[in-house]
Specification:
Blueprint: H1 4-17, E1 22-27, H2 34-44, E2 50-54, E3 57-58, E4 73-75, E5 80-84, E6 94-100, E7 110-117, E8 119-121, E9 123-124, H3 129-141, E10 146-150, E11 166-172, H4 179-193, H5 200-209, E12 215-219, E13 224-226, H6 236-241, E14 247-252, E15 256-257, H7 258-266, E16 275-278, E17 284-285, H8 288-296, E18 301-303, E19 309-315, H9 326-336, E20 341-343
Parallel strand pairs: 1-10, 1-11, 2-5, 2-10, 11-19, 14-16, 15-17, 16-18, 19-20
Antiparallel strand pairs: 3-9, 4-8, 5-7, 6-7, 12-13, 12-14
C-alpha cells in the first residue's frame, strides 16, 4: 500500500514528464518493468500527441530469448509509432502510414505511422544512436509533443543526452533479489550518471575539437594537442607518456574502462592536477571499486553532457514470482537519493 511519501514521489515524477520533448526508458535487466513503465507513460500522456519508438524490439507477446510472457504495449488513437515494417503484422492497432525512413532493420525499413484505432503494437526500432536521433527528429517534424524511446536491455548508452532530454531508470527484483544489492547497484549507476558537467567554455572547446579525434590534451596556456589514436580503449600508455605539470584537461571521445582507470591509478602520476573529460556518463564502463579508488587518488572525471534521470521505476516481482518488500526498497532509495521512485506494478494501470 502506498504512503504519502510514495504518492508525492509519483506526483513529482508525473509533473516532470510534461517538461520534456523526449524521454528514454532504460532497463538494468530483463523483467525490470520497462514495458509496463512505457504503458504507464502512454496512459498518463494520452491527451498529448506522443511518438513512440524503440532501440531494438519490444512489445511482443513472448520474450524471444527466454520464451516467457511479456506485457504488451497498448497505444491510444492518434499515437505516432516508428517501427520496422514487419512489426505492423504483429500489431492489432489500425495505422495510417505517414513516412518510410531510409533506415534498414532485419524486419524492414523503419515506418512512421499514426494509429487510427487503438490497440496493441510491437515496436522494433533503429539500432544506433544516430539512427535513433534521426527517428526522433522525424517524429518531431510530424508534430509530436513528447517522444518516448524504449531502450533495449543493457543499452544505457541510449540515456545519452544527445538522444533524449530525460531518462527513466528501471530496476527491480529481476536485477537482484538481494534488496541491499538492488538499491546500492542502482544508486551506483545513478551516481555515475550524475557526474559533474564541465564549465561551459570547456564544453564548447571539447565540442569544437573532438569531432575528428579520440584523445586530446589541453594545457594551462590553453594550447591544444590532438592525438592520432584511433580509439580511446588503449589510450592510457600514451596519456601517461604525455603527462606534464602544465597539463590541465585530457579530452576523451569514446569509452573509459576499468583497465584504463587502473593504469591511471598505478601510474604514480599526480592525478589531482588534471581533469578527464568524456562525452557523457554512458561512456564510463567502470565498476564502483575502481571508480572510488581513482577518486581517492585525486582523479576527476567530468562530462560534456549530463544525463537527466527523472525517475526510478521499480518492479519488486522477480520472473520466478518472488516479491520484495517495496516499502523497504522505497525507504532505502529515499535515504540516499532525491530522484522520484515509484512501484511500476502498483501503477501499471495509471493513477488518476
Amino acid at each position: 500500500m502506498q504512503n504519502k511519501n510514495m504518492s508525492n514521489d509519483l506526483k513529482i515524477f508525473i509533473d516532470s514528464i510534461y517538461k520534456y520533448k523526449s524521454i528514454s526508458i532504460i532497463g538494468l535487466d530483463k523483467n525490470t518493468g520497462k514495458t509496463t513503465t512505457l504503458n504507464f507513460l502512454i496512459h498518463r500522456l494520452k491527451n498529448k500527441k506522443i511518438g513512440i519508438t524503440s532501440i531494438g524490439r519490444d512489445g511482443e507477446r513472448e520474450d524471444i530469448v527466454t520464451r516467457t510472457h511479456k506485457p504488451r504495449i497498448y497505444i491510444h488513437e492518434n499515437t505516432l509509432v516508428a517501427t520496422a515494417r514487419l512489426s505492423f503484422l504483429n500489431s492489432d492497432a489500425v495505422f495510417e502510414i505517414l513516412d518510410v525512413l531510409d533506415i534498414n532493420t532485419p524486419l524492414g525499413n523503419i515506418v512512421i505511422a499514426r494509429s487510427v484505432y487503438p490497440g496493441f503494437v510491437e515496436i522494433a526500432g533503429a539500432s544506433t544512436k544516430n539512427q535513433t536521433k534521426y527517428v526522433i527528429d522525424s517524429l518531431n517534424k510530424l508534430g509530436c509533443e513528447i517522444i518516448i524511446v524504449d531502450g533495449a536491455l543493457g543499452r544505457k548508452t541510449f540515456a545519452d543526452p544527445e538522444v533524449t532530454e530525460a531518462a527513466v531508470l528501471c530496476t527491480g527484483a529481476a536485477f537482484s533479489e538481494d534488496m541491499e544489492f538492488l538499491v546500492e547497484e542502482t544508486l551506483n549507476i545513478l551516481n555515475l550518471f550524475s557526474i559533474d558537467r564541465v564549465e561551459y567554455n570547456t564544453a564548447k572547446l571539447y565540442e569544437k575539437n573532438m569531432q575528428d579525434c579520440k584523445v586530446a590534451y589541453v594545457y594551462a596556456d590553453n594550447s591544444f594537442k590532438k592525438s592520432s589514436l584511433k580509439t580511446s580503449i588503449d589510450a592510457s600508455k600514451e596519456i601517461i607518456s604525455n603527462f606534464s605539470d602544465n597539463l590541465r584537461f585530457i579530452f576523451i571521445k569514446g569509452i573509459l574502462t576499468n583497465n584504463f582507470i587502473q593504469d591511471m591509478i598505478n601510474s604514480g602520476l599526480n592525478l589531482s592536477s588534471i581533469t578527464f573529460v568524456i562525452e557523457d556518463s554512458t561512456k564510463l564502463f567502470v565498476d564502483k571499486s575502481n571508480y572510488d579508488a581513482f577518486i581517492y587518488k585525486g582523479g576527476t572525471i567530468q562530462v560534456k553532457n549530463s544525463i537527466n534521470v527523472i525517475g526510478i521505476s521499480v518492479n519488486p516481482i522477480s520472473p520466478e514470482g518472488n516479491v520484495l518488500n517495496y516499502n523497504k526498497i522505497f525507504e532505502k532509495f529515499k535515504m540516499k537519493s532525491d530522484i522520484p521512485v515509484f512501484n511500476v506494478m502498483d501503477y501499471k494501470s495509471g493513477c488518476d
